[in-house]
Amino acid sequence: MSVEAFEGDIWEPACGDGAISKVLEAAGYQVVSTDLIDRGYGAGGHNFLKSDKPLAKNIITNPPYGTHGL
């Protein structure tokens, strides 16, 4: 976070346990956290690969590398 700055809300579409979202929130950003599977953080049941439009101006994620549930 020391070398990046964002304007507007951030969508973390593969939030998992919230590791990235929590860092972004601690830095003062409004974060929309979703994931395909409910892992106890954010909103589960959301497949970002099939989304019609982003849920925020910025998208930051570490995407999954498998095809589970797709």
> What spatial form do the alpha-carbon principal axes imply?
globular
Q: On the 0-100 scale, what is the average pLDDT?
A: 91
Strand content: 5-15%
The largest pleated sheet is described as: 3 strands, parallel
What is the subunit arrangement here? single chain
Number of domains: 1
Based on helices, strands and strand pairing, what is the structural class?
little secondary structure
Number of helices: 1
Gyration radius, to the nearest Å? 12 Å
Low-pLDDT windows of residues: none
Helix-strand pattern = EHEE
Report strand order across the widest sheet: 2-1-3
Bin the helical content: 10-25%
Strand tally is: 3
What do these coordinates show?
The longest helix is centred in the N-terminal third of the chain and has 8 residues. The protein contains one helix and three strands. β1, α1 and β2 form a beta-alpha-beta unit. The chain is mostly loops and 70 residues long. The model has no long low-confidence stretch (mean pLDDT 91). The protein has one domain. It has a three-stranded parallel beta sheet, covered by helices on one side. 11% of the residues lie in helices and 11% in strands. It is globular, with a radius of gyration of 12 Å. The N and C termini lie far apart (31 Å).
